[in-house]
Write a structure and sequence with these properties.
single chain; 243 residues; alpha/beta; Purple Acid Phosphatase, chain A, domain 2; six-stranded mixed beta sheet; 30% helix; 23% strand; globular; binds zinc ion
């Protein structure tokens, strides 16, 4: 089965649409959370996600906060302004959808899905090999897919050497997964690795291959909607530069 793996859509409909188109044929979508937050299109992103085939989705910190289940003080100034706006505009059906999401999912016997880390599914950033190393002890499957950092990354557990190696995957390059691996597809709607193109990955459940992808989208149109909604200018600017 060809699985589209996405994370951190962040209410960016234009980027999400570009990813769905670029991904071609896929039989399932595994989503690693933060569907809303930051961007101007929360309801349509939730709606489009909910229509995807064989969907498995965990919530992110922004999704949980948008439902009012977390104090908005947990977010910094601009993120908080955006959060309060999302809480105002989110429809009842979007809320219902976000409310049903479990924080940890094993979509098959090989893979665990979380937003942050297996140890702290909502908040921890899988940001370096030390964090990854501690987290390899916290899940049972061979592979764990995470989001939250908005940076495409592959953490390999090298058992013989008892250490973790970090790879930054390149666009269009496939890797065959073996042993134990933690992977991040990067962010659809707000990349933070200085590459503004939307990021996603394709995972093959039979060959265990993982292919990272980037796709351009119309950033200007999203910036316009951010400004129309009077969301923080910073959220518009960062999209063009990928930070
Ligand atoms: Zn995020």
């Amino acid at each position: 089965m060809r699985v589209l793996v996405i994370s951190d859509v962040h209410a960016n409909y234009t980027a999400f649409e570009a990813v769905l188109k670029d991904a071609g044929n896929f039989e399932a979508v595994w989503c690693l959370g933060d569907i809303v937050g930051y961007g101007p299109d929360p309801n349509i992103c939730v709606e489009m996600l909910s229509e995807q085939p064989n969907l498995f989705c965990v919530p992110g910190n922004h999704d949980i906060a948008a439902m009012g289940k977390m104090p908005s003080e947990a977010f910094n100034g601009d993120a908080r302004i955006s959060l309060l706006w999302q809480q105002r505009v989110l429809s009842a059906s979007s809320m219902d959808f976000l409310n049903t999401l479990p924080q940890v999912i094993e979509p098959d016997e090989k893979v665990t899905l979380v937003h942050g880390s297996p140890r702290d599914p909502i908040w921890e950033y899988m940001i370096n090999t030390l964090t990854a190393r501690l987290n390899f002890l916290e899940f049972e499957t061979d592979f764990c897919f995470v989001g939250h950092t908005h940076v495409p990354s592959i953490f390999w557990w090298v058992a013989e050497e008892n250490r973790v190696v970090l790879d930054i995957p390149r666009d269009g390059v496939s890797v065959e997964l073996s042993g134990r691996v933690i992977l991040n597809p990067g962010s659809v709607g707000q990349p933070r690795d200085r590459d503004p193109r939307a990021a996603y990955a394709i995972f093959d459940t039979e060959t265990f291959s993982w292919t990272s992808h980037r796709v351009e989208y119309d950033i200007k149109s999203v910036q316009e909607r951010i400004r129309e909604a009077r969301l923080p200018e910073r959220h518009a600017l960062r999209l063009a530069e990928g930070w």
